[in-house]
Design a protein that fits this description.
Elements: E1 6-8, H1 11-17, E2 26-27, H2 39-46, E3 50-51, H3 55-62, H4 64-71, E4 80-82, H5 85-97, E5 103-107, E6 116-119, H6 122-130, E7 138-142, E8 148-155, E9 158-165, E10 179-182, H7 187-200, E11 204-212, E12 216-223, H8 235-253, E13 256-257
Parallel strand pairs: 1-2, 1-13, 2-3
Antiparallel strand pairs: 4-7, 5-6, 5-7, 8-9, 8-11, 9-10, 11-12
Helix pairs in contact: 3-4, 5-6
Domain ATP-grasp: 66-251
Protein name: ATP-grasp domain-containing protein
Organism: Desulfofustis limnaeus
Length: 258
Amino acid sequence: MNRRRRIITDNATFFNTYPQLRNGDRICCRLRLRPGEEHLLVDLAERGIEAFPSFRAQLCCRSKAFQTRLFSWAMVPHTTVVYTINDLLETVARYERAELAPVVVKLEGKNGGLGVLRYPSIEEVYSQAALGLLRFPFVVQPLLRGAVDIRVLILDDYVEAYRRSNDRCFRQNLHCGGAATPFVLRSEQIELCRRIMEQGGFPYAHLDLLEADGTTTYFSEINLRGGLRGAKIGNANYLQRLAAIHQRFLASSGGDQG
């Protein structure tokens, strides 16, 4: 007897039915996992369960380390993930050979600029980690002086960008006191965002870019959701477009929604 596909659309139903989910079932929501529950995504994928947004995208949102492993090709050169003190020693050697200072550290699981740290040198980062003051893993990259910080919102054919700037702090995030002004993206910048989204399995996204010298663009971070402060799109319009994207997935899924 054929079993109808189950469609999960909220977190409460997901956790209540998790043991019963089987190959062919689908999840259409962002899973609100607690730190340390990421292994559930591996289990779900192994069972043949499909997610929208993809499990890859949902894990990306939770891990700057994973983002760096996936998208280092598009990031500021020498951006790397540090998992152990031995990794850090190797990074110290590379950064000192290249004479890279100062540096920026991004802490795992922190958003809104709250986990972005600046150090005068990679040796200072090593001192902090060796003393147990930095928790592994973390991302380290050279500080890109004078770069333009750009936030991009993409929902289907809707694309909006604005520049974030802060005269009092190197953190450009609006949460940290930055200001927003509209920014016109070049075609190659939109193409970069679309490429990142495709590789990460993002049907929609908030992306951060860094533009150096008005010519070279680097990818910084990506998330499925983010604050709308500074964006022209209103909350109601944003949620309407988001719901339409999810509804298209549900319409193509069939099955019983839960």
